[in-house]
Design a protein that fits this description.
Blueprint (H helix, E strand, L loop, with lengths): L10 H18 L5 H7 L7 H24 L2 H18 L6 H11 L1 H17 L5 H29 L2 H19 L23 H4 L5 H27 L7 H17 L2 H5 L1 H18 L6 H29 L5 H27 L7 H20 L10
């Protein structure tokens, strides 16, 4: 009985949640406006690179963030990610060339390549194993809320007072995230800590990939392809149905995601990681295939709701599954491996959809169809694991 009464909702946990909310709002705030911002510089053909470059740097920085998280601590790595958001948000208004913009997106990607890795390791440190799915779900509510509010605030600011104030507000949100992180105590044991050294940036294969989470890796790649397509095409797709706020789709799917996390945060702890992921993949594949048909307000709303339900189930479940399978002395590396898969999937999805789209609205259905196929593959692969279901996955 004692283990069931173990307290997880502590002050450090709530501070972490608040920091995540501000961080997510900061980098997502500008996403809906970036395609038009790039187009205004004459870079319409590079729209696919907006997300692809961001995720490329995030993926490249994962091995470093995982190693640094396991050696110098969780809090410094989280703070670095927020600092990158703070600096980049203030620089966007000063960039007026396509090359400069793309380079800044490349740098900005280091933010999500570092903070989420260290955050996931921090949660694994302070939350008992049998309640990690619940904790990840609660943390996800704050993250998803930030990602929901961010695009709407960003589009609202851009439409009312201009792009420059929007970028500066994004920077201020990141600054607030940093201030909160400074109040968190480090959870990496002193016996495992190393002094910061350039030697820590020497990476070999064992620092890049944690083989114990190979199942999570491939499922994440297949699922996150859809995220790359959505992030790249939805801002322009919403204009086809006459939505003034290009962040509306993101708001709808995030509200749906929050609903799932709020009422079903314990589902993967109670029923197992794989069964919940199967449900998630089913909602995802339906969401993507709906957008293959002629675009209208109804199928946009339905797609957004189903996409949010899928994310609400999959995001905390994949993080909890990674924690279950990981070597406890290399939690940062395991989390980095999971997020590398995320960036690979998003990056490929963004590049593919941008390459196909090229500003031609008639080409929009094809990337969503391919995203639906990838989600179906993930669904089938998870079904193949059914003989090995346990409470915590495989």
């Amino acid at each position: 009985m004692e283990i069931q009464e173990e307290k997880i909702y502590t002050i450090p946990f709530w501070l972490l949640c608040t920091s995540n909310f501000l961080f997510a709002a900061s980098f997502s705030m500008i996403i809906p406006e970036l395609p038009d911002y790039l187009a205004s510089m004459g870079g319409s053909e590079y729209i696919g690179y907006i997300i692809a470059l961001f995720t490329l740097t995030a993926g490249l920085s994962r091995p470093f963030s995982g190693k640094l998280t396991d050696h110098i601590g969780r809090v410094p790595v989280m703070a670095f990610g927020s600092i990158v958001c703070f600096i980049c948000g203030g620089i966007y208004p000063m960039v007026h060339t396509v090359q400069g913009f793309l380079f800044l997106r490349f740098i900005h990607g280091m933010s999500t390549g570092t903070k989420p890795t260290a955050t996931a390791a921090y949660v694994a440190d302070i939350i008992p194993e049998h309640r990690r799915g619940e904790a990840q779900g609660t943390l996800g509510i704050f993250t998803a809320t930030g990602m929901s509010i961010g695009p709407s605030i960003g589009s609202g600011l851009a439409n009312s007072i201009g792009l420059q104030p929007m970028f500066y507000v994004s920077s201020l949100f990141a600054l607030a995230s940093i201030v909160i992180l400074m109040k968190l105590e480090e959870t990496l044991p002193k016996s495992m800590k190393s002094k910061f050294s350039l030697k820590l940036f020497k990476i070999n294969w064992k620092d890049v990939f944690e083989p114990k989470v190979i199942q999570v890796f491939w499922i994440m790649v297949l699922i996150s392809f859809s995220y790359g397509v959505v992030l790249t095409l939805i801002p322009d797709t919403t204009k086809l149905v006459g939505w003034y706020n290009k962040g509306l789709y993101f708001t709808i799917y995030t509200v749906a995601s929050i609903f799932v996390r709020f009422f079903f945060s314990k589902s993967s702890d109670e029923h197992g990681r794989i069964p919940i992921l199967i449900i998630s993949c089913f909602f995802l594949l339906v969401s993507m295939f709906i957008l293959v048909f002629p675009i209208n307000e109804i199928n946009m709303v339905i797609s957004a709701i189903l996409f949010g339900i899928s994310a609400g189930f999959s995001t905390p479940t994949l993080a909890a599954w990674t924690s279950d399978l990981a070597d406890k002395n290399h939690m940062g590396r395991a989390m980095a491996t999971m997020y590398i898969a995320l960036e690979i999937g998003i990056g490929i999805g963004a590049l593919f959809s941008g390459y196909i789209y090229k500003g031609l609205s008639q080409m929009i259905p094809l990337p969503f169809f391919i995203a639906g196929l990838f989600s179906t593959i993930a669904f089938v692969v998870l079904l193949s694991f059914r003989k090995n279901w346990t409470r915590n996955g495989i």
